[in-house]
Amino acid sequence: MGGNMLGYNELLSMFRENMVSIPLLTKKVALFQYGGNVVYANSLVDVLANVPLLNLIVSAIFWRPLFAILILPGLTGIMLALLYIIWFERKLTAKVQWRFGPLEISRSIGGLIQPLADGIRYFFQEVIVHREAHRPHFLQFPLLSFLPVLLPILVIPAGAIYAIRTPYAIPIAVGLIALIPIVIVAIGWASNSKYAFIGSMREVFMYFAYEIAMIIAAMAMVIAYGSADAFVIVEKQSIVPGILLNPFACLAFFIATIMATSRFPFEIPEADQEVVFGPFVEYTGIIFGVVMTLAYEKLYLLCLLLSILFLGGWNGPYIPLGDLSPAIWLYIKTIVLMMIFVFFRSIYGRYRLDQAMRIGWGSLLGLAFVSLGVGIGIACTGWL
Amino acid sequence: MPGVFKITVPSPNFPERVKGHLTALAVGVREVIRPNRMTIQYPRERRKLPDRFRGMLQFDISKCISCFQCAFVCPANAIVMKRGPDGKFYPCVNYSKCVFCHFCADTCTKGAWKPSKFMDVAFPTIEDMLLTTEVLLKPPKVEREDKRTVVYELREGDLIMKKLPPEEDIIGVEKD
């Protein structure tokens, strides 16, 4: 063992010092008083404290940074949101179009587990790599796409559950999310096919159209709050949420999010009827499952940012679940926002690329500049 | 100039655009709250078929006079005549060829062919689709899962879907 390496016990105590506080899981709960003594119900971590290896695993899961990445704003939260929102989108669109949507699998709950069934089908389907594809890049980019999806979770906090607290949280998150289109363009390039190429070119055009307005709108709110630290931003929204403070920035960020995640009416890069899923046209099997959910994962991240910047983040009445309470509030707001975004699929057609470019470089950019002015005005008057 | 039409692209101003978006949203929300679904959930619901529906054919051997008219008129050559045990010729239908035109039923002078409403039929093999006279005479084996019958109706210009109790007679052979 080297001198600087952490031993088992040092690692365990490091995990146990900084754990998420959840009743019955990591915190003991007072049950009743008995003759002056308080009787406690032991927590899961305490029960497993003396079991070798299992105590390390359990306390690592509840270690604050890892919990943020793996459980609530992170991977598990993304997966649950994906399963729910894909079902919800199909069901809602079906309702508006006078159909039923997914129903046959689990009729009693309205086909809720259909995305799970689709995922299982993807798993057992053959992954075909066509001859023209650049094989290593074709297979590696869908997996690399998890990097820009999961890295922003490091700096996006959910109340007391956070991985890194930094005064540059919002710019870092926006910058990391902006890496996702590069992965999509790389996927289109590695596919080496006509429709994938057209799709990735459309993605590039859309990327330039929304990204500037989105960054300006986010920065307008950062200027207005006087800080890019998510904790400060949420604390300053405890009375007036940001959507009332600067509605122009909210609208600009909202429209830019629709463009960024290629929801309708800006579903241009992946247009099914024109370029059959654009950059992802050549994918099959589980790799297609990974790239198909990329837009939803991006939607999840941008909705997290949207609720932190404009909807008061994790502010909300306390739920008796310890540190989970603010995280659950943030999650609920995010899911509701995602439900609004996927609703547009059922009522809008698709803009042409030039129309979307005109909106992006014209009215959207103008709206973003107006919001920047409002943000600077709020900062100068010093209301907050 | 007479006879020349110029089509201009509609360019709504800002309030009209906002109104258009709001109308679309309102329609979407209305359909979400009160969906007007048109789908027939097939094995559980069946559509009520019209009276003159051209489905499977029913054959009445007592009326057949072996005139060969059905075999002559059949445009798909689905009907062939075969000699029966009594020396007369009787038709056999090959449903892998039949186009359900019901010319045979129209041309039958004695009304031995009867149209029915029975149309969703499954055959295990392609050889089973050739129904000989003996098979034609047997009543079809019916397995029903339907709980409702569905009827489409026009009400105030809108197409609506009505759900009725299931039909008693699913084969629905036409009466004389």
Give the terminus-to-terminus CA distance of chain A.
53 Å
CATH class (first level) name of one domain in chain B: Alpha Beta
- Radius of gyration of chain A over alpha carbons? 23 Å
Q: With helices defined by DSSP (H or I, 4 residues minimum), what is the helix count of chain B?
A: 4
How many domains make up the 3D coordinates of chain A? 2
Distance between the termini of chain B: 64 Å
Instruction: Report the biggest beta sheet of chain A as strand number plus sense, adding barrel if it closes.
Output: 2 strands, antiparallel
Mean pLDDT across the residues of chain B is 86
pLDDT average of chain A, as an integer? 87
- What's the helix-strand series of chain A? HEEHHHHHHHHHHHHHHHHHH
The helicity of chain A comes to 55-70%
Overall form of chain A: globular
Poorly predicted segments of chain A: none
Within the largest sheet of chain A, what's the order of strands?
1-2
As laid out across the biggest beta sheet of chain B, the strand order is 1-7-8
Largest interface pair? A-B, 11 and 12 residues
Rg of chain B, Å, rounded: 26 Å
* Structure classification of chain A: mainly alpha
Taken as a percent bin, the fraction of beta residues of chain B is 15-25%
